[in-house]
Specification:
By secondary structure, the protein is mostly beta strands. The chain is 8% helix and 33% strand.
Length: 171
């Protein structure tokens, strides 16, 4: 199990310490967002992440729904110097860890699905550059994400020691 105090590998191989756990519900931000928040599937995998989630692409940070991200993560975007985050689109290339040769994952499909507003999501609060790698359901390659976004319980995260852990097993 991943615990507070453990380390995750982030952008450029930086080690990020888990300082706290963040366990929001999918609908927690519906009152601020431009519409009811949905779950997202990339490249036919599971509906693993909320649509406001930030993914690192070869062109910089992008998100499945920029309108939601701009409202929900306004401060994070300012801290990351992201002036105008764009929608993640088919054809974009997701960044993977340098340890596996900087392989790129090309976005071939993005699907949105409405879900229960009480759906439990999982995330970390990190000290460092606030990034980590996840392996989404139905995929083998980890991709780089920002820690202010949330995933489903079965998604794996890459640990500093090279192992993987289910995000829901974080204690």
């Amino acid at each position: 199990d991943v615990e507070v105090g453990e380390e995750l590998i982030g952008r450029d191989g930086m080690v990020n310490e888990v300082t706290a756990l963040h366990r929001p519900k999918l609908g927690d931000e519906d009152h601020r967002a431009p519409h009811k928040q949905r779950m997202v599937s990339i490249n036919g995998g599971g509906f693993d992440t909320s649509e406001d989630h930030m993914f690192m692409t070869t062109e910089g940070w992008k998100t499945p729904d920029a309108a939601s991200c701009k409202v929900i993560h306004k401060k994070v975007l300012e801290q990351e110097d992201v002036v105008d985050i764009q929608d993640l689109e088919v054809g974009d290339e997701l960044v993977t860890p340098d340890e596996i040769g900087g392989e790129i994952v090309k976005v071939e499909s993005i699907e949105f699905r409405e879900d229960d507003s009480d759906l439990q999501l999982y995330n970390f609060i990190l000290k460092g550059n606030h990034t980590y790698h996840v392996v989404m359901e139905g995929h083998d390659t980890p991709v780089l994400v920002h820690n202010k976004c949330c995933f489903m319980e079965y998604v794996n995260v890459k640990m500093a020691d090279g192992t993987s852990q289910r995000i829901a097993d974080v204690k």
